Amino acid sequence: xxxxxxxLILELIRRKDIETQEDLANAxxxxxxxxxxxxxxxxxxxxxxxxKPGKGGRQIYVRDELTDPALSDKYIRVLRAGFVRAEQAMxxxxxxxxxxxxxxxxxxxxxxxxxEVAGCIAGDDTVMAxxxxxxxxxxxxxxxxxxxx
Length: 149
Hints:
2 domains, 6 strands, four-stranded antiparallel beta sheet, two-stranded antiparallel sheet, elongated, Gyrase A, domain 2, alpha+beta
């Protein structure tokens, strides 16, 4: 339940401007979750959400994946150690890795809990990452390239 609620929070802040904890709690309630302010506050903290200026200068909740504590250095080290290149094919990223590293790279991507990623399948030197939309695939590819720099 907690994981699904937190996944929904990430989806909500990605799709619309959420300015306050109350706005977020109301959106969760509209989606069928009975939440308290304390629960919402804890989720915000656990997800590493911050506020940044949105449209019109109002502060909105965002998740900066590259500085998120959930994306610890170990995941970035795994990506850097195994990554060779990534190609986008519609909403799928084909990620080539060093031989034997595909499983570790796929696990790292899955553990990062990027809201755009539906899941990964790995072979020996290739990862197929299924991304929710074509636009999101480009975003995820850019994030990966930035992480491996």
